Amino acid sequence: MRDERFANAELVAFGMTRRKGAPAAADDGLRVLAEVFTPTVAIVGKTWGLHLRKVLRVSRDENLRMIDESVGFLVGQGKRVVYDAEHFFDAWSDDREYALRCVAAAAEAGAAAVCLCDTNGASLPSFVSEVVRDVTAALPEVVVGVHVHNDSDCAVADSLVAVEAGARQVQGTINGYGERCGNANLSSIIPALKLKLGLDVVTDGQLRRLTETSHFVADVVNAAVWAHAPYVGRSAFAHKGGLHVAAVEKAPQTFEHIDPAKVGNEQRVVISELSGKGAVVRKAQELGLQLEGDDARVATVLRRLKAREHEGYHYEAADASFDLLLRQALAPHEPLFRLESFRVIVEKREDGRAVVEATIKVHVGGERIISTAEGNGPVNALDSALRQAIVSKYPHLADIELVNYKVRILDETKGTGAVTRVLLDASDGEESWGSIGVSENIIEASWEALVDSIEYGMLRGRARGDGE
Fold this sequence. Notes:
Blueprint: E1 12-16, H1 24-35, E2 40-46, H2 49-56, H3 60-76, E3 80-86, H4 88-108, E4 113-118, H5 125-138, E5 143-148, H6 155-164, E6 169-171, H7 186-196, H8 204-207, H9 210-220, E7 238-239, H10 242-250, E8 268-269, H11 277-286, H12 296-311, H13 319-330, E9 338-348, E10 354-364, E11 367-375, H14 378-390, E12 401-409, E13 420-427, E14 432-439, H15 442-464
Parallel strand pairs: 1-2, 2-3, 3-4, 4-5, 5-6, 7-8
Antiparallel strand pairs: 9-10, 10-11, 12-13, 13-14
Helix pairs in contact: 3-4, 5-6, 13-15, 14-15
C-alpha cells in the first residue's frame, strides 16, 4: 500500500553478497531478492580488510568475486541494484586503493548506485567530504551515495557535505531511528537539501507534510518526537524571551531560519518568567482576547506567572495550563465542575496484584455526582472516575485521551517530602496540549494537571462547535 506522504520514497529489499562456495541458503537469499516485488534491491558487502580477516575470513580477491557475482546475478534478473559498501570510510583509511576497487567492482557488475557507508558513525564532515570527492572523481560515471550512522552526532552534517562533494543519493531514516545512536535523520536532511541547497528532492506539497510524516512514523514506532528536533519538533520555532518575541513580531526571519509552514510546522510563543508584555499580549490575541500592552492586567498576569514559576510551575511545556491562567485573569468563566472531594485507594494483595480505585464527588450543572472507577494507577483511576462523572454533560471529553505523564522532583534534598511537578500531555486526535500541576502530594499535583487538561480540551471542543 502506498502512502502519499512517501510518494517519492522507493521500496527497497535488502540482502548480502553471497560468498563463493557458501551453503545453498546463501543462494536462496539472492533468489528471494530476485523474486521480491520491489524493482530496486540493495545488497550489503564488506570493504574493510579487518572484516575480511576477522569476520568473513576470505581473501581480498574472493571478496571482489562475491561482489561481482552477487550484483551481476541480480542485474541479470532485471533488478536495479544499490550496492552498500559497509565500513567504507574505515576501509578508505586502511587501504583506499582496495576500498575503491570494491565499489568499482559493484559498478562494473551493473550496480545502479554505490553507497559509501560510515557504519561505525565515526567520521567527521571534513573527512567525509574529502572521501566522497575523491571517489566521485575516480568513478565519474557512477551514482555515489552515502549512508552515515550517528555515533559522532555528525550524520546529518556528513550527509549534507557528501552531497556538496558530489554524492547523489542519501540513505537514512525518518527521525534518525536506528541502532546505537541512530542513522542519518531524513527529517533534517530533506528540508536542508530542498531549502538550503536548492535540490528538488521532494515537491513543495510533500515538504509541507514533513512534520506530519515525522510524527506519523513516531506514532507507528510508539515513540515521541523530541520537542526540540530541528524542523519538525514542537519547539523548533518556539520563542519565549521578550526580546525574541518582539523581534519575530516585526521580522520572523530574525529568529527563524525558514518559514515553519514550509515543513508543516508553526511558530509558537511560549510563556515563561522571561516573557515580556509582548508575549502575553500575543498569547491573549491568539485566544481571541482583546488586550493591549499598556493594559494593567498584563502586569498582573506577569507577576502571577513569575510567582507560580518560582513555586515550580513550568508553562513552556504546559500551554493548556497557561491558557486557563490567562483566561481566568482576563475573561473569567464558569468551570466545568466543582470538586467536593476525591479519594484514591491503592491496595496491594497477597497474590501480588495491585488494585487502584478512585472515588470522586463533583457538582456538575447543579447536580451532585459520585463516581468510582478502577485504573492501573492513581492518575488513570482518577481520570476514569472524572470522565465517568461528567461525560454525559460534555460528550466531547470521550475524544480526549492522556498520551504522556511525566513527574519531576523539584527538591531532591527533601526526599519523599519534596515538591513534585507533574506534566500531562493530552490529545483529541487532532491536536495535543500540555498541562501542569505542582504540589508536595503527587496525587494532588496529578489531579491539578488532569483538571487543566480536561478543561482545556472542553474549551477547545466548544471553540470548534462540538455540542454538549
